[in-house]
Design brief:
Blueprint lengths: L1 E3 L4 E2 L12 H13 L1 H4 L8 E6 L6 E5 L5 H10 L10 E4 L14 H4 L8 H11 L7 H4 L7
Antiparallel strand pairs: 1-2, 1-5, 3-4
Length: about 150
């Protein structure tokens, strides 16, 4: 995830231009602008598509893609992100999501989810964690974390 210019957490994104030719091409362009070239070179496929949400604005639909990276890919993205075109403008930095819960039942992911998220980013995060099997089945509901419907 990324810390946005407005202090909220979110995912890379933006408008797809006609010149992009496809959602995936527009996503690669946005990844390059916001996270750098390493992110733009991660292979994206239609299988990485997760969901769409109609935004309140006219003719705007947000499409959500999630991709599980190798440690090598993640480190390359983190290293290159400060050199991205929009770093320091739209994006203030990357944020790793804690995929654990401390024994107190609050620290880790539950505490992280108390942050301020833009739009549907929190629901999209929970959806991706489940879809990519990055959390134990039932762990989100066991810690009273609201799941997307």
């Amino acid at each position: 995830m990324q810390m946005r210019f407005d202090g909220r957490l979110g995912f890379p994104g933006g408008l797809v231009n006609l010149q992009d030719g496809s959602l995936e091409a527009g996503l690669r362009r946005e990844l390059s602008e916001e996270l750098g070239e390493a992110a733009a070179h991660v292979p994206l496929e239609r299988a990485d598509y997760r969901s769409s949400h109609a935004a309140p604005g006219p003719r705007v639909v947000a499409h959500f893609y999630a991709k599980q990276l190798t440690l090598e890919q993640l480190l390359a993205v983190e290293k290159g992100a400060p050199r991205a075109k929009d770093h320091g403008l739209e994006v203030l930095g990357l944020v790793r999501v804690p995929l654990y819960t401390l024994r107190d039942g609050v620290g880790g992911l539950p505490a992280f989810l108390e942050n301020s998220f833009i739009g549907a980013a929190k629901e999209q995060l929970l959806e991706a964690l489940q879809d990519l099997e990055l959390v134990e089945p039932g762990s989100l509901t066991a810690h009273k974390i609201s799941l997307p419907h």
